[in-house]
# Entry
Amino acid sequence: QKEVEQDPGPLSVPEGAIVSLNCTYSNSAFQYFMWYRQYSRKGPELLMYTYSSGNKEDGRFTAQVDKSSKYISLFIRDSQPSDSATYLCAKTGKLIFGQGTTLQVKP
Amino acid sequence: SAVISQKPSRDICQRGTSLTIQCQVDSQVTMMFWYRQQPGQSLTLIATANQGSEATYESGFVIDKFPISRPNLTFSTLTVSNMSPEDSSIYLCSVVAASSGNTIYFGEGSWLTVV
# Structure
């Protein structure tokens, strides 16, 4: 089993939809969880990070961690075409990435 | 935050040759990493670049194929040796920025195509 599992998609939604991106992890050691966004032909860009269970909001983005079920989620409200990218979840110490979910938001 | 510059940004290389990728950070950082992202895939950690000592390689990666240098706290190089088409990939440098709550930042990547 991989340490971080993520559905690669692709995921296609209409503009304005709420997007839910999910990952599961297998190692319960204390760690940070991160979400990165990667546009085509660009390096990953950090969106959010969190280390505690519960929700963390930043604008249209909400990161959620459920340590009891080892589940991490990223919600995007009012999705825009500019949100079309690959979203990668990751956990620290060494940064271990999920496979990435490709999101397309159609206008 | 940390600003990371990678060179070259892209290159086309001949089979059997070697290429060195440079990573320059605008501030001193304790930890630097090298990742590979093969076409359509996620990022895979190659090694941790240790300042003043040998790099720590992940399973499946060896020093002879991917020698790494880190002479100081702002600079590192990754060499891809004896390249084959299977080495065609994006190579990314990343750093931990203690000044930003240990956030991990990435460079824009070096896009290598081996022909």
